[in-house]
Write a structure and sequence with these properties.
Length: 320
C-alpha cells in the first residue's frame, strides 16, 4: 500500500507490544535498582511531544535521587541536534528520526555520530471535536485537506465539511485546520507520511505544541487538527484512517500492535556518547531508568505506547 511504502522509506515502524507477563529473568533484567553516587543536573532540549514524558521521568528519577536537578526545554525536535552539537543539552528528545544533515553536522563537530535510543511509541492522530459526526478519513482525503500539492493522490482541495458528507448545524463553515509548527518533529513526519513530502496549505494554523492543537480543536465545532495522540483529551476524538472508506482503522492499542494504524512512530532520545567510552553516571542511570519496567510504566501513564522488552534490552545495552 502507498502509505506503507512511505513509512518504510522514512524508516518509520510500529513496534508490537508484547502480550502476557514477562518471564522472570527478563522482568528482573528490566527492573531498575537504585545506585549510589548519582547527583548533578540534566538539561533536555527538544520535542514538545515528549515534554510530559520527560517531566514524568524526571520527577520519578528525582524521587530516587534528590540530589539530581532537571531543566526541560520543549521547543521542538529540530532544536535538539543544535543543542547537542553545541553542548547546551545533555539529552535531545525527538519525535522523528535524525536527518542525514543533522547527523553530518554532529559528526563534523564531535568526530562520531550521536547515540539514538528508541524510548516509546506514539501515533499522530487526526483530531476532531468529540461530537463531530465524521466517521473517518481516507488517506487521500487527509492529503486533500492538509496539503496544497496533493502528492499523495488527493483529488483536489477539500475546504468544507459538506465535501466530507457533513452538513449539520455548526459544520457549514469551512474546516478550521490546526497543526504543529515547522520546528516540530510531528510537523516533519506528518509532512512526509501524510502528504508525501508535499506542502502544507496556508490555512493550517500552526501551533507551538500538540496540547495547543488539541485545545483549539476541542474549543468548538468545525475544527480539525493533527497532533501527538498522547495529548488526547475528553474534548476530542481521533478519527479512524484508511486507504478506503471501507477499510478505516481506529487508533487503538490493538491496531498499533498489529501495525494497522497508518501514522505510527517511535519517540527518541539522542545523546552525545563517544564510542567505546562510558556515559557519565548520571546520564547512564537516567537512561537506564527510562528503559526499565518502571520507566515504561510512565510511558503508558502518559497515553503513549511502551516499547517491547526485547528492544528495551537492546537499548539498555547501548547505554551500558
Amino acid at each position: 500500500m502507498r502509505i506503507k511504502q512511505f513509512i518504510a522509506s522514512c524508516n518509520v515502524a510500529v513496534l508490537l507490544l508484547v502480550s502476557g507477563s514477562l518471564g522472570a529473568e527478563t522482568t528482573h533484567e528490566l527492573e531498575y535498582e537504585r545506585q549510589p553516587g548519582v547527583a548533578g543536573k540534566i538539561t533536555s532540549v527538544g520535542s514538545d511531544t515528549l515534554a510530559n514524558l520527560m517531566t514524568f521521568w524526571s520527577q520519578e528519577f528525582k524521587a530516587l535521587y534528590p540530589q539530581v536537578g532537571f531543566q526541560i526545554q520543549a521547543s521542538g525536535s529540530s532544536t535538539a541536534p543544535p543543542a547537542l552539537i553545541e553542548g547546551t543539552a545533555t539529552i535531545g528528545p525527538m519525535s522523528r528520526e535524525l536527518k542525514p544533515s543533522e547527523i553530518r553536522d554532529f559528526t563534523r563537530k564531535h568526530g562520531y555520530p550521536p547515540l539514538v535510543l528508541k524510548v516509546a511509541m506514539d501515533a499522530i492522530a487526526i483530531f476532531v471535536e468529540r461530537r463531530n459526526p465524521l466517521q473517518g478519513l481516507t488517506l487521500n482525503q487527509v492529503d486533500s485537506i492538509f496539503s496544497q500539492t496533493q502528492f499523495c493522490g488527493g483529488d483536489g482541495p477539500i475546504n468544507k465539511w459538506s465535501e466530507l458528507g457533513i452538513d449539520a448545524n455548526g459544520y457549514r463553515a469551512p474546516i478550521r485546520l490546526y497543526g504543529r509548527n515547522s520546528v516540530s518533529g510531528t510537523y516533519g513526519l506528518f509532512k512526509i507520511i501524510a502528504m508525501c513530502d508535499g506542502d502544507f496549505r496556508n490555512t493550517v494554523n500552526e501551533q507551538p505544541g500538540s496540547a495547543s492543537v488539541v485545545l483549539s480543536v476541542a474549543s468548538g465545532k468545525g475544527a480539525m487538527g493533527y497532533a501527538a495522540y498522547g495529548y488526547k483529551t475528553a474534548g476530542v476524538r481521533a478519527l479512524p484512517l484508511g486507504e478506503t472508506k471501507d477499510s478505516l482503522v481506529p487508533l487503538t492499542i490493538d491496531n498499533v500492535r498489529s501495525e494497522s494504524y497508518p501514522f505510527s512512530r517511535f519517540l527518541y532520545l539522542v545523546i552525545n556518547k563517544k564510542p567505546g567510552e562510558p556515559l557519565p553516571t548520571l546520564e547512564r542511570e537516567f537512561l537506564r531508568y527510562i528503559l526499565s519496567e518502571q520507566g515504561q510504566e510512565q510511558v503508558a501513564r502518559d497515553g503513549y505506547f511502551p516499547i517491547r522488552e526485547d528492544m528495551l534490552l537492546r537499548q539498555r545495552r547501548l547505554v551500558d
